[in-house]
Structure formats: C-alpha cells, structure tokens
Amino acid sequence: MADQSLENDEMREIINDFIVESSELIENVIQDIVTIEENHDEEVVNGIFRAVHTVKGTSSFLGFNALAGLAHKGEDLLGMVRKGEIKINKEIADILLEALDLMRSMMESIKDKGVDEGDASSVIKELERLSKVETKKLGEILVEEKVLTKVELEAVLEKQKVEQDKKLGEMVVEEKLITEGQLNNILTKQKVHRDDQTVRIDVKKLDELMNLVGELVLGKNRLIMVNSLAKRGSENNGVMDNLEEVTNYIEVITNDLQLSIMKARLVPMSKVFNKVPRMVRDLCNEFKKDIGLKISGEETELDRSLIESLHDPLIHIIRNSVDHGVETPEERRHAGKEEKGQLSISAYNEGNHVIIEIFDDGKGINLQSVREKVKEKGLMGETEINNLSDKDVMNLVFIPGLSTAKKLSSVSGRGVGMDVVKTNIEKMNGQVYIDSEQGKWTRLIIKLPLTLAIMRALIVKISEEFYAIPLSNVIELVKIKEGLTKSVDKNEVLMLRDSIVPVLDMSKVFLSENKNGHGGYLVICRIGDKTIGVKVQSVIGQEEVVIKPLGEFMGNVNGVGGATIRGDGKVILILDIPAMINISNLQGIKHH
Questions:
Q1: Are residues 450 and 266 in contact, defined by beta-carbon separation less than 8 angstroms?
Q2: Which end of the chain lies in a sparser environment, N or C, as judged by fewer CB atoms within 10 Å?
Q3: Which residues make beta-bridge pairs with 457?
Q4: What is the largest CA-CA distance in the chain?
Q5: pLDDT tens-digit profile of 436-474?
C-alpha cells in the first residue's frame, strides 16, 4: 500500500512538471507564431516545431491522448512550414494559434481535473485541410523564385501522383533540380538564435533569499553603529582595528550579496512584452484596425514581483491605444495620415528606475471632450476646469469614473478606466504620466523602481520621531527661515523660484498639533508633475533601508508606506509621498 502511495506521489510530480514545462512551451510558441508571420526565421520555425513535438511526445507518454492528437496534427502542418513546403500566412497563423489556445485550455483542464478535456475535432479538420491545400504552393514559389521552370514543376507533380507518399520538397531534391540547402534558404532568413541560459527558480525561494539579505543589511547597519560608538569610547586600538576590519568586510560582502540577489530577482521585460504582439494582432482583427507594432528594450530588467504587477496596467494601456487611440484605416485616410497606424513600446533604464513608454500615432486626447466629461459627471466646477492648463486637463483622464469612450467594447469603456492603471502603478512606488497632441499622437510614460525590497531613503525627524522619505521622490532641501512660507486660503505655501509649492506640516498630519516651532527644513518631493514641501524638524542623513510591509497593523493610517529598522534597532515609518500629495489635495492646496 505504501509503495502504491509512493508511485502516486511520483506520478503526480511527473504530471506537475509536465504541466509547468508544457505550459511554458505553449506560451513561447504562441509568441513565436506571431513573430514568424511578420518575418520568417528558420531558427524560430525549428524552435516552434521542436516545442510542439515535445508536447506531443510527453502528453502521449502520460496518456493525454486528446492533447497528443491535437499536437500531432499541429506538428504535421509545422513540419511542412519547416521544410519550406508551405509559406506561413494569416490563415495558417490563425489556425495554429487556435490550436495552441485549445492546447493551453487542455493543460488547464489537466491541472484542475486531471484530464485533457476539450473538443479538438473542428481545429484538427482545419489543420488537415491546410496541410493538403497548401502543398501545391511550394511549387508556385519555386517557379516564382526561378529555381524551377513551369515544365520541370509539372513533370515533378505528375511523378508525385504515382508516388503519393512523397512530399514535393523531397522529390525536387531527389530529381537534383534543387539542393536541400537551396530549398531551406528560399523562404528563410538565417539568424542565430541563442537559447536563454536560465534556471527555473521557485519565487518563494527568491523571496526567502531577499528577506535574508534584508536582515543582513540591518545587521550591517547595526555593526556600523556599534563600530562608531566603540571608536568614540575606547582607547584599545587593537580591538578597534579588528572591529573596523570586520565591519568593512561585512559591508562589502553584504553589498555584493544584496546586488547578487537583486539581480537573481530581475527578469527581462520580454516576459511581459512577448504577449503584446499576439494581443495587438487579435485586437486589430476585432476592431478592423491595421497597426504596425514596434517593441524595443525587451532585455531591460525589472524585479519579478513588479513584472507580474505591471502586466495588467500595461495590457489595459495597449488595449486603450488599439481600441480608441489609433483610428480605422478609413478615418486615417480622411485625416491625411498613412492607413497603417503605429504603436511602439519601449523600455530603458534611467538611474535606479526603469522607464516604459507606450506611444501611438492615433487621434490623441480630445481636451474639450475631457473637460465636458468632467463637468457632466460633476467632478469639478466650470470655473475650476476653465482655469486648468492643457497639461492638467490631460491628467484628468486618471480621475476615477472618467471614461471618454463613446461606445462600450470588450476592452474599454466598462468603468475600468485609467484611474485603475494609475493606482496599480503607484502601488509599485511608480509614477505614470501622459502627453498627447490632439489628432496626432499619445504617449504614456511609466516610471518604476528597479526593486521594492531595498531603497535609499532620507532619514528625517518630525516631532522628536524619526521617519524615512524615499530618496527617489526627493528633489531638494530648503532651510526654513522667517517669512519663507506664506499663507494662502489658510494653507501654507512656499514660493520656490517660479512655482508655488504646497507645504504639508507632518507634525499636524500625525499628531494633530505642531511641536516643530520655528526652524527646520522643507523636503521638496515630486511625484509626476506634482510637487510638495514636507515640513520636518531636522534632517539626519541618507541610509539604505529595508522596506517591511506593515500589513494589518496599518489600519487606516494614511501617508505611511511601510517601516524599517535602523542600526540602533528602532522601528521607523517610511512616508508614502503619493499619499501625502493626496492629503494636501484634500486640504485644498493647489499644485502647480
């Protein structure tokens, strides 16, 4: 009985491995089919064929016959593409994608129920039909490329009627009318394709490692502090030298280990970007649009947890661009534009941040329409709207409940607007900006930190308590002097060069009283195009902090984004600057 249980456990493990590996293979093949439809590449075609062949073989071995049968028919058609007997076109790509979608849903069924449920009969029929219909097209291509004459082709086709089991490609090579190398090169462009040198690691293990590194950083901070205290209070230089040496050593090791673990967690943007071509292709079919897609910076790396959280906002932005950003070919023709629209997505590093830009050459944002929508929904008064600059009006698209879609579609106008995108990006400590020229283009820029686990922060003192402000939000420090700030509508503001910066007195936010008195500093922070001056008692300095989420302890505390432990073991709160800006908005302070 125990042996049977062991066998069952082993079988379950084999099936689980099969599900993980095959699901990944199918996802990669879906992306590659879209790639070769645009640009035929022999290495990519070979990779697709090998992946489907692997799924077929393993599913057959494990007794998932419906999945194996479907994969087998897909492999037949791909084999013909691979040999150059048929040229991939939209019809073939469509049916292959349909087959892969069905294979994917069968994998889900195996995962949930242990059986490969799914009716593949109609897809198999189509795969078989295309395998027969498309064969003759190789002959046409060989004549077009002037490799064969029409007479030579007809002679081979006559011979094929007798030897029906032989493929046309095999026969023209046999007849020495063409070499195998020539046949392979007719439809393909040579390209070296390097397999990713990656190891699959359980995210939980990475999270544990990250946590350990976080603890080590805290240990390093404490050791640095003990070192400085001991130096001040002891004359025993032998001990001091040793302590200094070990402190320096642990600092170097910790920094290296921290960097190494952060790199282990980083994954390329291609993880998200690879799904975009298929999605744009499907959306173009749905909305009768013609859009060229350009993707760059797929190798740019970002923390794994951020990549996962980025998926939904990015997909929403792209759907918006395709649905009511880029116009239909007719509308573009009337507007004097090229019929084919352009959508480009790029990612690049900027300091400790990753920038993602989504650009489309569509109709842009109709500012008047946004103004009217805001007025109609009662979100702002007429005078207030009219006083706004064009840039401010543009950013109103991020207000909850505002959708300017004229009609409901499956991808937009269902009340899930750009506010959700903004909220999700800000949850990742990121920022999102929008820029547009009506009738011409729209550009969305997302700015994200490389990682959320460790960051540099400015340690400040407010009402005798220490707090940390993320350094990425800080742009400058201003020493408070008598008469530096002014009162406007009972709110304190600072004239900083040509702009008015609202001032937020943190002692009032946290303690409902002002213990700061005169003096202190204003920490000028910026998120997007919003600037705020945070009033603090004193500035202690910069530190590398490990962010610890507070979870249920947070309750309804506004303005706090987590906590960290300093070198002396004390817990200090990390200020949440986007929330601070919202607090100042609630107090009616205008941002300029």
A1: yes
A2: N
A3: 470, 543
A4: 102
A5: 888 889 999 998 887 777 778 899 998 888 999 988 888
> What three-state secondary structure class fits 524?
strand
276 burial (CB, 10 Å; 0-12 / 13-18 / 19+) is: buried
Q: What backbone phi and psi angles, to 5 degrees, belong to 3? A: -60, -40
Q: From the CB of residue 464, how many other CB atoms can be counted at a distance below 10 Å?
A: 10
Going by C-alpha positions, the residue among 206, 203, 202, 226 that lies closest to residue 214 is 206
Measured distance CA(193)–CA(15) in Å, rounded: 30
Element (H, E) at 495: strand 491-496
pTM of the model: 0.58
Q: Give the C-alpha separation, 309 to 313, whole Å.
A: 8
Contact assessment for residue 503 and residue 587, using Cβ atoms and an 8 Å cutoff: no
Burial 370-407 (b: 16+ CB within 10 A, else e): bbebbeeeeebeeeebeebeeeebbbbbbbeebbbeee
Q: Name the one residue in this structure whose structure tokens are 């060229």.
A: 292
CA distance 525 to 469: 9
For tokens 């390329």, name the residue: 268
List CB contacts of 390: < 8 A, sequence separation 6 or more. 367
Residues linked to residue 343 through DSSP beta bridges, in sequence order: 293, 360
What would the pLDDT profile of 525-569 be if each residue is shown by its tens digit? Answer: 887 667 888 888 889 989 888 887 776 665 556 678 788 888 788
**What angle in degrees, to the nearest 10, is found between the helix axes of 65-82 and 121-133?**
20
Between CA 287 and CA 362 the distance in angstroms is: 14
